[in-house]
Amino acid sequence: MSDDLARVAVLLSGRGSNFVALADACARGEVPAEIVLVLSNKADAGGLDRARERGIPTVAIPSKGMPREEHESRLVAALDEVEAHWVCLAGYMRLLTPVFIDRYAPRIVNIHPALLPSFPGVDAQAQAWEYGVRVSGCTVHLVDTGCDTGPIVLQRTVPVLDDDTSDTLAHRILEQEHVAYPTALRMLLTRRWRVHGRRVVFDPLIDVDRPWPASAN
Amino acid sequence: MSDDLARVAVLLSGRGSNFVALADACARGEVPAEIVLVLSNKADAGGLDRARERGIPTVAIPSKGMPREEHESRLVAALDEVEAHWVCLAGYMRLLTPVFIDRYAPRIVNIHPALLPSFPGVDAQAQAWEYGVRVSGCTVHLVDTGCDTGPIVLQRTVPVLDDDTSDTLAHRILEQEHVAYPTALRMLLTRRWRVHGRRVVFDPLIDVDRPWPASAN
């Protein structure tokens, strides 16, 4: 454990391919973070196996049959116990209430497989394909209590090809998700930013290739 | 006049920069079309002046104070008189009713300064900037009676930069509109296509660089 690394927890409900992308990017040193916990609301989520393979602690807190606020209180307790500072949702298939949001916002991040605000909610790739857009993509955003409505950090585009099916489109979007999510998390952890209105505003990058002092403009 | 050129009419309400882009592309032979009429619902629309400069016939049929269906009947009469086959909307700031749509669909095309279905309606660039998207763009679509809801032909993306304002974003989107609209019109005029569900499906391009017969796959 390093004091220089952000303590990130991941919430997932399924195979967790975006968790794997984040974990690999952290392991390669591309994102200054340590994934300190993988939490799932499904005991059989494949992402928990991927975490165990990597020696990352896991906790499953099944949501089925449990009142929503009690479930979230237990999630928060598990996150507090490992002193998580950031929470990344990676295919976590439930909306979060203020019980959770108020504890961790604005340091809750999600990735969505469409260019929000187009196609929020489930099956975004199929929604986009059926709508007939010629460009789709993925969106990393801060999480609020709405469905995929929070301030946007980063978007990457994916063209819809003439011979695409919903599945081939989803596959190419997923490839871009695996690039976008680590990139966005690195931006959030390494740059100064604020939310202005509902825009995520990053301070200008210092141009390290330019001799100091940088010339005016 | 050539029998090989599609007879296209343009409807506009303002300066008509997309009309100019279409007219220039036609004049350069990039789009196999002839603009046979520019129609406006505003007698003082700058686009009418641009048309006159190019020797393109113009008609103004002011919409103000006229019942909507009567106005559209007069538009249709003007289009019928010049035997227009296609209608391109270029900053035409009114919705069209079945009086017009049923006469010319599916050969009515519009361009919208956002990646539909995000940000339909007026001030799309400002809507996108205020929402905080990181990617916007423009959409060429077939026109139905909804507000920017018709099947999509082509989209081009424009990144939203950290130091963009709504105006700088709108300027860069406009540059892409001027590329997208002629490109989309050329596609519609030169390729086989159909609307499937609400997707515009183009038949595969014949690869003209490959000797005939093209090898399988």
For the secondary structure, the number of strands of chain A is 9
| Alpha-carbon Rg of chain A, integer | 18 Å
Terminal Cα separation of chain A, in Å?
41 Å
Look up the CATH topology of the largest domain in chain A: Rossmann fold
Helical/strand content category of chain A:
alpha/beta
Task: Describe the overall structure.
Two copies of one chain form a homodimer. Chain A folds into two domains: 1-104, Formyl transferase, N-terminal domain (Rossmann fold, 3-Layer(aba) Sandwich); 111-202, 3-Layer(aba) Sandwich (Rossmann fold), CATH 3.40.50. The longest helix of chain A has 25 residues, at 166-190. With 217 residues, chain A is of the alpha/beta class. In chain A, 34% of the residues lie in helices and 24% in strands. In chain A, helix 5 (124-131) packs across helix 6. Chain A has helices at 17-27, 46-53, 68-81, 98-104, 124-131, 166-190, and strands spanning 6-12, 33-40, 58-60, 86-89, 108-112, 135-142, 152-159, 193-196, 199-202. The model of chain A is unreliable at 210-217 (pLDDT under 50). The first copy, chain A, is globular, with a radius of gyration of 18 Å. Chain A has six helices and nine strands; from the N terminus they run βαβαβαβαβαββαββ. Chain A binds chain B through residues 115-119, 129-135, 137, 139, 151-157, 162-163, 197-202, 204, and chain B through 115-119, 129-135, 137, 139, 151-157, 162-163, 197-202, 204.
